[in-house]
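User: Here's a structure from my thesis project, written as structure tokens. My advisor, Dr. K., wants to see whether a designed sequence matches the one we expressed. Can you design one independently, without my sequence as a hint?
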């Protein structure tokens, strides 16, 4: 009997699967879930990374940001547990803003108060991202107005009760963004007149933003008169280091050095990339657990298959099949099961990510596809070897007699 060709081996494997369709599907299910988990989790991780990167890149270039807490370590990475990080550290106020505003190399300085609050108009209520800022915030956020106008420095000085809405929230509250101009909204028990609507950005947060003068928030919205962050627009990239150094010296007069962080935009993006490299590795490890479980399931089923087909193995050996032929047959079935499960998992993950992309910038990562598919194939080989060897080592006479 001549050795089986790859075509013969594949055909035999497919015929075996057709005889036990339900068992084939259930056996591949573990690999399917594993591959889908790896690709999907990494896709979501990449999406989150893209989202954060887009947020910072949309702020423009030559940007310096002051955060509360020791956000970054000396090596440029994340500080231990953001300690004290965003949840603690310095509490910035108007005095800090006015002091930082004196830095000559800073083109503009923008304090930011932020709260997520319901915004009501015409009996409709929508969740909005309320931000108290200066007029220069429109430069930092690269915002232009589709309707109406932005508020000005005089509005900040006079504590004018005006607001500029994001395109999406204006559309939700007034059915048409254009109709929002001149109308009144209520948020945090504060009545505000809408004087402008920003052009659509295609970003959920930016399109649902409510911008108002930071002085207007003092009272009901911001009784403590504090800011979460302070932004600097630097007129020349060569002056960034100087601005950072001066800002640190000014803040150090009021706060401990560990209670605030002054950093540039590129450093934040670099840190984001480092963090998501670690996150992706963890996600791969989590998804690989499903692949491992799927591999064990394949091994169990293949052992059962060897037992069921003992007589078949004996007959094949009796008419000339070698141990290598038997080994190849059962090993190929295990690999085909893994590859089949991997392809289905990849297809399902791709479909899910296509749906998610409508709301979030998730993406298929080529490396995750290669890793998931390679691992699923390797699992088929690894866990298929043991049952295949058992089948190949069966004595022909005893195998024929097996009932």
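Assistant: Designed independently from the structure alone:
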């Amino acid at each position: 009997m001549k050795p089986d060709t790859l075509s013969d081996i594949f055909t035999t494997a497919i015929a075996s699967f057709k005889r036990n369709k339900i068992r084939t599907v259930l056996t591949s299910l573990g690999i399917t879930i594993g591959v889908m988990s790896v690709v999907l989790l990494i896709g979501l991780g990449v999406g989150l990374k893209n989202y954060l990167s887009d947020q910072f890149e949309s702020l423009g270039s030559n940007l310096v940001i002051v955060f509360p807490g020791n956000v970054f370590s000396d090596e440029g990475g994340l500080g231990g547990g953001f300690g004290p990080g965003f949840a603690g550290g310095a509490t910035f106020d108007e005095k800090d803003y006015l002091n930082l505003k004196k830095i000559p190399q800073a083109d503009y300085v923008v304090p930011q108060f932020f709260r997520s609050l319901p915004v009501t108009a015409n009996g409709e209520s929508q969740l909005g991202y309320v931000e108290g800022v200066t007029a220069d915030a429109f430069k930092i956020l690269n915002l232009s107005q589709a309707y109406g106008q932005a508020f000005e420095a005089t509005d900040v000085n006079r504590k004018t009760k005006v607001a500029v809405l994001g395109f999406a929230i204006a559309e939700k509250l007034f059915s048409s963004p254009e109709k929002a101009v001149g109308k009144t909204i209520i948020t945090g028990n504060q009545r505000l007149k809408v004087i402008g609507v920003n052009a659509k950005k295609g970003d959920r947060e930016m399109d649902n933003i409510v911008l108002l003068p930071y002085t207007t928030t003092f009272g009901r919205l911001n009784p403590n008169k504090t800011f979460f962050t302070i932004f600097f627009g630097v007129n020349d990239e060569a002056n960034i280091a100087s601005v950072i150094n001066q800002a640190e010296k000014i803040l150090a007069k009021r706060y401990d050095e560990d209670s605030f962080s002054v950093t540039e935009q590129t450093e934040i993006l670099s840190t984001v990339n480092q963090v998501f490299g670690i996150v992706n590795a963890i996600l791969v490890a989590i998804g690989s657990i499903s692949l491992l479980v799927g591999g064990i399931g394949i091994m169990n089923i293949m052992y059962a298959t060897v037992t069921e087909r003992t007589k078949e193995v004996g007959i094949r050996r009796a008419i000339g099949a070698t141990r290598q032929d038997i080994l190849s047959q059962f090993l190929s079935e295990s690999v085909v099961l893994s590859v089949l499960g991997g392809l289905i998992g990849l297809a399902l993950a791709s479909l899910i990510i296509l749906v998610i992309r409508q709301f979030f910038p998730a993406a298929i990562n080529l490396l995750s596809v290669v890793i998931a598919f390679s691992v699923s194939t390797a699992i088929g080989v690894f866990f298929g070897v043991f049952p295949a060897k058992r089948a190949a080592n069966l004595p022909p006479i005893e195998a024929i007699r097996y009932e």
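When you compare it with your expressed construct, this may help: The CA atoms of residues 165 and 197 lie 5 Å apart.
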